[in-house]
Amino acid sequence: MAGYNFKRIESKWQKKWEKSRIYEAEFPSKKKKWYSLFEFPYPSGDGLHVGHLRPYIGLDIISRKRRMEGYNVLFPIGWDAFGLPTENYAIKTGIHPEKVTKKNTDNFRRQIKSVGPSLDWSREINTTDPDYYKWTQWIFLKFFEHGLAYKANMPINWCPKDKIGLANEESVGGKCERCGTETIKKDKEQWMLKITAYAEKLLAGLKDVDYLETIKTQQVNGIGKSEGALIPFEIKNPWPGRQISLAGQANIKNGGVEVFTTRPDTLFGVTYVVLAPEHELISKLKTQISNLWEVEKYIAESKKKPEQERVVEGGEKTGVELKGVRAVNPANGKDVPVYVADYVLANYGTGVVMAVPAHDERDWEFARKFKLPVKMVICPNYPEPTCPPLTAAYTGGGRLVDSGKFNGMESEDAKQAITHFVAGKKEVKYKLRDWVFSRQRYWGEPIPLIFCENCASNPKLKDPWPGRQKSKLSLGEEMNPGWIPVADLPVKLPKVKDFRPGENGESPLASLEKWVKTKCPKCGKPARRETDVMPNWAGSSWYFLRYVDPKNKKEFANIKKLEYWMGAALPSRSSKSEGGVDWYNGGMEHVTLHLLYSRFWNQFLYDIGLVPHREPYRKRTAHGMILGEGGIKMSKSKGNVVNPDDMVNIYGADSLRLYEMFMGPFDQAIAWDSKNMEGVSRFLGRVWSFAVEKEITKDSVGGRLEPLINRTIKKVSEDIETMAFNTAVSSLMIFMNECRNEERIPQKVWARFLLLLAPFAPHIAEELWSMLKHKKSIHLEPWPTYDPELIHEETFELIVQVNGKVRAKVSVKRGISEVEAKELAMKAPGAAEYVARGIVKIVFVPNKLINFVVK
RNA sequence: GCUCGGGUGGCGGAAUGGUAUACGCGCAACACUUAAAAUGUUGUGAGGUUCAUCCUCAUGAGGGUUCGACUCCCUCCCCGAGCACCA
């Protein structure tokens, strides 16, 4: 019989599987469903490297096991193909992104197929396909209708040299990626999605899902909820005769500011107040600021600074006092100086901070630099009479001191009491900002809105188009006067000649006057199209929904199919809303944004009754990155990219799969080492030669190998569930090593080994399975089970310890009693002499060890 | 700075509080071969000791809990990832 010819075997079975379509998901089906998902790739021009494949192989193993366990498995793939690299390539070469995308996806598809994953290719999707992005646009309009999309003035990164707007990822460290010029912020009208409206729900939803703890933490941090209070500070009028006119907040009588704080208990410790440079109060107080020129100079400088520099680590705090302006502490009526400093952020809280240097690190630092007083009001070790002098800010809790009638109160209680005392109010703030949904770019989904001057000035004038509620504006139209949804989706991306963004920071689409000029779908008067496109994140925010019904022309997905695959039901049918993708794996780098965005879309669609499940993913795990040899990131420029094509050529797909799983823990970053491919390759070679050289008997009992195969089944089954693929592979190797001594093996044992091997090395397992004269694919056979009674040998090595140190080993029967074990162990050479010293205590662990504690 | 991981042979890494170093790479010796490759067999933490044996020391450092600690607790050092002036 010939040697292990992986090339022949692999191409043979890949063709057969494709033809027999054994990996395609069924619908309808009476079986239990299973939906496993990996993050669909961005098809870059560089092709796949071995790192991309790790999560695919891992989930393929899980999916294959589920299929063998009798589930109806949905394991789909698609392409997240809109994006900047393709667009930039188009700008450079003039080749249309569509062509580039086609070429790249073809290459990716070929590469992925070459490792034989059990993907359902009949459900392949592509975010750049108009049949797909029609629904991305459609969902966007749903957001619009429900008042969750709005236009706002938001800064974009602008390169003054290239005269183009840059995406955040192109403005590296505040510099233009192409020419290195420092970018500046330029205000532009942009579409926003109101994700902040879902902050609380996104937080609450985490309770029902099974994400890795670190992933949950990142979600929580990304949302950044903090509970605190708004406290009013009045601005003292230095010239009592003169009237100061200030647009006051609700609960400030004479004008002033509200501060947001999470520590109202420290209010008596406030020694100054700080405004963000952008704060509007500064211009309103102009006439009172005696050092106005200095203040304005500071503001101008800090505006020039790119955000990165403003937030340098350990950077010296800067600021300027507003001379002539004082703020009044509502707790004690005392007035404190007011500063402007850029360590206060304009877009968080109210843009004003009450500074408590004694109990806040940033304020401490600032106060030290500007020699401002530090007043301690929280004492950590009360009732000790004296509090230790502060050498740093104390940010913990304790009891209040030097705080008037609140002295002695617990800081937690004081939060409420003091807020109430100064007529402040409780307030919750989030770090999460609304999502800037516009890109002034080409290669993205056009935003399907039209601006109509006529409708803007006469909002209720005309009837809407057929099929919509008559005489009532949607929330989106109310909020964004004149913006009218396109009636016929998709809005196809028009062809352009020049893919460069426009001179004034507009999308290349803005240059297509013919396309831009259109008729209002509502009143029929001349109108203009929105020329911005959606960000990369749009298509990936809902792709997991499309997989259940990828070819549907009428809906983004059929509700029956959604209910089946997500394992949940619409509220009208059942109260079961927990469901979603059963297992979603992806990179750690997407754990904040992509996860947040897609959870937001799904929750919104759930709220408006379009999907049955509240949360998109039941379980989320993350794989570790594969680094180049030497432990550095694989990149073209470093020349350390390992191409899977080469590995498949030299060692075969099964070896590559096995090595990627064997190299180390799945969730940890690990350096590639092609040398180590030898090990798994030899293992498969041994499996092959064993199968062809040794006798496979028809015995109906497992014989000597029965305990080992049972242990192996247990280990492999459990390890797959925890993604401990490396130890699963090693236990397969251990089994094979043990077999080497055998001249014949019962088919009963061998078959179970092949079944365990099948998810890892599907081609060789299938070939060897067919050599056992099986007609059906091994991948449709039931997963083997083990008998807990059979996993142990009859005898074991009893470890004999003296004072916790191993002194002897004795081979004894399983289930030996303590008394018997003691007898044998005491006589064991190596232990006897110690035991003679006199036993103080004996510790006996059944079927494992006996420990003599001696003098 | 904060949060979460991690630190074990020459290397990748294993170990429900119970034989540390599984499995693999590499290396060495041997077998097969005219020879090499491939393959197979055996050995392989360090130091000492003996013909076999045995002893001591080793899981980033230092303490602690325990009959027994890579594992649990405290202090500190280093590496990686994420967040980063969010009041």
Helix count equals 28
Give the tally of β-strands.
34
Structural class by SSE content: alpha/beta
The CATH topology name of the domain at 225-430 reads Isoleucyl-tRNA Synthetase, domain 2
Q: CATH H level of the domain at 225-430: which superfamily?
A: Valyl/Leucyl/Isoleucyl-tRNA synthetase, editing domain
Low-confidence regions = 241-253
The largest sheet, given as strand count, sense and whether it forms a barrel, is:
7 strands, mixed
**What share of residues are in beta strands?**
15-25%
What's the CATH C level of the domain at 225-430? Alpha Beta
Our measurement of the CA-to-CA distance between the termini, rounded to an integer number of angstroms, reads: 65 Å
Radius of gyration: 34 Å
Global geometry: globular
What value does the average pLDDT take?
88
Q: Give the % helix.
A: 25-40%
What CATH architecture of the domain at 225-430 do you see? Alpha-Beta Complex
Describe the structure.
- It catalyses: tRNA(Leu) + L-leucine + ATP = L-leucyl-tRNA(Leu) + AMP + diphosphate.
- One of its GO terms (cellular component) is cytosol.
- Keywords: Aminoacyl-tRNA synthetase, ATP-binding, Cytoplasm, Ligase, Nucleotide-binding, Protein biosynthesis.
- GO terms for molecular function: aminoacyl-tRNA deacylase activity; ATP binding; leucine-tRNA ligase activity.
- One of its GO terms (biological process) is leucyl-tRNA aminoacylation.
- It contains 28 helices and 34 strands.
- Among the domains are: 159 residues, no CATH class; 206 residues, Valyl/Leucyl/Isoleucyl-tRNA synthetase, editing domain (Isoleucyl-tRNA Synthetase, domain 2), CATH 3.90.740.10; 149 residues, Isoleucyl-tRNA Synthetase, Domain 1; 60 residues, Ubiquitin-like (UB roll), CATH 3.10.20.590.
- The strands form ten sheets. Strands 11, 12, 13, 14, 15, 16 and 19 form a seven-stranded mixed beta sheet that branches. A five-stranded parallel beta sheet has the order 2-1-25-26-10, with helices on both faces. A four-stranded antiparallel beta sheet has the order 6-5-9-20.
- Helices cover 33% and strands 19% of the residues.
- By secondary structure, the chain is α/β, with parallel strands linked by helices.
- It is globular and about 100 Å long.
- The protein binds one RNA strand of 87 nucleotides through helix 7, strand 12, strand 16, helix 11 and strand 28.
